Amino acid sequence: MILGATPRFDDLEVGAIVAKADLTVTRGDLVRYAGASGDLNPIHFNDAVAAEVGLPGVLAHGMLTAGLALQTVVDWIADPSAVVSYETRFTRPVVVDPLTGADLTVSAKVARLDEVERTARIDVTVSSGGQTVLGKTQAHIKLPA
Questions:
Q1: What percentage of the chain exceeds 90 in pLDDT?
Q2: Which terminus of the chain, N or C, has fewer Cβ atoms within 10 Å?
Q3: Is residue 3's pLDDT more than 90?
């Protein structure tokens, strides 16, 4: 496959890992995301508030984590319009250290191919600190033959 080229449906195989990414989310990322999304909940930037409500630290926005996971798939398919649907469940918080941030590991695997619709279900695994942080994360994509 040519780098940056949209993969072809006929080249996909169930079980194949098609994309991986190791990412770091920083406190600066949280500030930028809060400004862009309008989610100014202080648990995403204020250690004292996070501790006051019983959290282990400042948390990444769930939608930021979900968006970074989907971006890994979009980078692979090179065509965001190929994403038909996307779903996830938030299973664990991502604690963002003030100095080192939070490391995320994203892996995307072909889980199902629909020959009639020419769509693929891509299961995405996202972990931080050795624990899965998103559950049942699936992107459905439609690719050229």
A1: 94
A2: C
A3: no
CA angle at 125 for the pair 124 and 127, rounded to the nearest 5°:
145
| Residue carrying structure tokens 């918080």 | 93
Q: H helices within the chain, ranges in order?
A: 27-37, 47-52, 62-77
Say if residue 1's pLDDT is above 70: no
| Span 46-60, pLDDT tens digits | 999 999 999 999 999
pLDDT at position 4 over 70: no
* Angle value at C-alpha 4, between 3 and 6, nearest 5 degrees: 110
Measured between alpha carbons, how far is residue 89 from residues 8, 56, 140 in Å?
A: 28, 20, 15
Cβ-proximal residues to 80 (8 Å cutoff; 6+ apart), any chain: 74
Rounded Cα distance between 79 and 118, Å, is 16
Angle at 74 between CA 70 and CA 79, to 5 degrees: 145
Give me the phi and psi of 3, to 5 degrees please: -60, 130
Q: Model's pTM, two decimal places?
A: 0.92
| Domains in the chain, CATH or no CATH each | 9-25+61-142 (3.10.129.10)
